Every structure is written in structure tokens, then in C-alpha cells.
């Protein structure tokens, strides 16, 4: 049954057959409009986040977004960056001594210091009676040689292998010279008993102290310690 027609000049009221009801239009995309399912950024995409990171921090932020990482800032490389200064003897200038110095190394160090002191004293006493330029040069040379010997002995006590090698060579040369001085002291005692006796005592100290220092510096415990200690 069809709806009655309205009077002439009037619009029909109510919904007409086959037409949607009157009212405000519906705004928005039609049903089914939008990106297909599964479309979007891959999982894990974006800046790293966490309790100690922000949107622009993190170790991989620059790699993900193509930013160039800055090199780590720090002090320029110097002697302290590669380890202690090799010139300063351990125990001085802020360079620490090793904590486990064996007794053999400590005794060899004391023996070398004693030998050096005896050598300097004997040179000064043997030349003090001559007031000339050569005498002064001899005293200066003895003092300079003693300072170098103490410098090497301090490095030896600090575990420097090169100091042990240099002290070994110098001690061997001094012992070889002391052998000739020891036998020459008996001849010198006939001419000048005081100087001959001083030469005899000095040569004996060099031979006995030097041999014992070398034995202590190169025994098994000392060798194991020098291998373990590194600078």
C-alpha cells in the first residue's frame, strides 16, 4: 500500500520508500576505511627508553637514527695514561712501591747501597791528601757514580728488570777490578801501609758484597717476583 500524495505545493513528510530517513548527515570515513591490518612500525622501533635513559640518550640512539657518535671526552694521553713514569724510582714522586717485595730483593738492595757507599768513601779518603784539580775531579766522579748507583738500586727494589741487568753488569766489572786491587794491596802495604790496608778492605768488601748481592738478585724467589711485577 503506497503513502498518500501530499497536497500540491507541499513537500512530503516522513521517510519515503527506498530513501534513508531525514536527519543530519553522518560525518567520518566510511566503514572499512583505514590502513590494512598489521601496518605500522616494526616492533622495537624508536629511541631506547628505560629508567636511566631518555628519548635522546642511549648507546644505540645514534646508530638507529643515523647520528654520528662523539668520541668520549677525557684528558689527553700522557705519561700517566700508560702507567707510572719509568724515570722516577718507585717509592718517589707518587710511584708506589710493590707491596710484596721478597726478602732476597730487599737484602740485595741494601748490599748494593752499602757497596756504593763504601766505594764513594774510599775514593774520597784516598784522594783527600792531594790538593789538586785531579783530586777534585776524582771526588766529583765518585759522587756522581754513587748517585747513579743509588738510582739504579732504587729501580731494582721497585721491580724494574732493566735496573737489575745494569747493576749486574756494573757489579761484575767492579768485582773484576777489585780482584786486581786486592792482590795489588799487598804490594801497596809495603810502600804505604795505610793506603794499602784501605785498598785491601775496599776490595774485599766489593768481592764479598757484590757476589752475595748477585746471588740474592738472581735466586728463584727474586726471578719469580720480577716476572710477576710489571710496570
UniProtKB/TrEMBL annotation:
UniProt region (Disordered), positions on chain: 1-89
Compositional bias of kind Pro residues: 1-50
Signal sequence segment: none
Biased composition (Low complexity): 51-71
Keywords: Membrane, Transmembrane, Transmembrane helix
Transmembrane segments: 109-130, 136-154, 166-191, 197-218
Tree of life domain: Bacteria
Stated name of the protein: Integral membrane protein
Organism: Actinomycetospora flava
Amino acid at each position: 500500500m503506497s503513502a498518500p500524495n501530499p497536497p500540491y505545493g507541499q513537500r512530503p513528510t516522513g521517510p519515503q520508500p527506498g530513501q534513508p530517513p531525514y536527519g543530519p548527515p553522518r560525518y567520518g570515513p566510511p566503514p572499512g576505511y583505514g590502513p590494512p591490518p598489521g601496518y605500522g612500525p616494526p616492533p622495537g622501533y624508536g629511541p631506547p627508553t628505560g629508567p636511566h635513559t631518555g628519548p635522546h640518550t642511549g648507546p644505540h640512539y645514534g646508530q638507529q637514527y643515523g647520528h654520528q657518535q662523539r668520541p668520549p671526552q677525557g684528558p689527553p694521553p700522557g705519561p700517566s695514561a700508560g702507567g707510572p713514569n719509568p724515570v722516577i724510582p718507585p717509592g718517589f714522586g707518587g710511584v708506589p712501591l710493590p707491596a710484596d717485595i721478597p726478602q732476597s730483593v730487599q737484602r740485595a738492595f741494601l748490599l748494593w747501597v752499602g757497596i756504593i757507599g763504601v766505594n764513594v768513601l774510599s775514593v774520597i779518603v784516598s784522594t783527600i791528601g792531594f790538593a789538586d784539580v785531579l783530586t777534585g775531579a776524582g771526588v766529583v766522579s765518585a759522587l756522581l757514580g754513587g748517585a747513579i748507583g743509588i738510582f739504579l738500586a732504587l729501580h731494582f727494589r721497585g721491580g724494574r728488570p732493566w735496573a737489575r741487568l745494569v747493576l749486574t753488569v756494573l757489579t761484575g766489572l767492579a768485582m773484576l777490578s777489585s780482584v786486581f786491587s786486592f792482590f795489588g794491596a799487598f804490594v801497596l802495604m809495603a810502600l804505604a801501609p795505610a793506603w794499602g790496608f784501605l785498598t785491601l778492605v775496599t776490595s774485599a768488601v766489593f768481592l764479598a758484597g757484590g757476589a752475595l748481592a748477585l746471588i740474592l738478585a738472581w735466586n728463584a724467589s727474586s726471578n719469580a717476583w720480577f716476572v710477576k711485577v710489571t710496570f
